[in-house]
Amino acid sequence: MRRSNLHLLAKLRFLSDRRRIELFPPFFLMRVKVVALKDDWSSARIRLPLNWFSANAAGNMFGGYQASLADPIPALACLKRFPGYRVAIKKLEIDFIRVGSSDLTLHFDFDQAQFQEIERELKENGRATPTFEMRYLREDGKISTRILNTVAIRPQGYVAPIEELDD
């Protein structure tokens, strides 16, 4: 079985979650900086720098960079908060509201009400498919991008029925 770089970094217990994110090879190359991360992953602020490598032809933040950082964050939070479950990204929607004309900061919040709702669904159904809303803010404080990220939280060894695969 092939192991991911993130899985290998997780074994380095002396590293904080914050440092593991920053050292994850794709994020390291993107020069991602964790500004704030609560121990229980209820909140995270991660800066994505605008530089010659991350800029599109117009000099603004490339949308693929934004998607790459936003993609795993809710899944990682769910893995931390619901140990023993398998978590996968099901859907990622991105709404580019304003150009990313500066460094962007990803704002992720996992409030207690959503945590309790997921916990209830897991107890009742054995699985949950929550959607998390995140946003990127520019340095001027304006929202650049709104992201909806849906994750599938399933028991270990879960195999989806055919009708679920068609959704």
Order of helices and strands: HHHEEHHEEHEEH
The CA-CA distance between the termini, in Å, is: 28 Å
What is the count of DSSP helices, taking H or I runs of 4+ residues?
Answer: 7
Question: What is the count of β-strands?
Answer: 6
User: In terms of structural class, how would the helical and strand content be classed?
Assistant: alpha+beta
Number of domains: 1
Task: Give me the CATH fold name.
Answer: Thiol Ester Dehydrase, Chain A
| Parts with pLDDT < 50 across at least 5 consecutive residues | none
Strand composition percent: 25-35%
Shape: globular
CATH class: Alpha Beta
Question: How would you describe the overall organization of this protein?
Answer:
The structure is a single chain. This protein has a single domain, classed as Hotdog Thioesterase (Thiol Ester Dehydrase, Chain A, Roll), CATH 3.10.129.10. The chain has a six-stranded antiparallel beta sheet with strand order 1-2-4-5-6-3. The two termini are 28 Å apart. With 167 residues, it is α+β, with helices and mostly antiparallel strands. The chain has helices at 5-10, 17-23, 25-30, 63-70, 73-81, 112-125, 162-165; strands at residues 33-37, 43-48, 85-96, 104-109, 131-138, 143-155. The mean pLDDT is 90. 32% of the residues lie in helices and 30% in strands. It has seven helices and six strands.
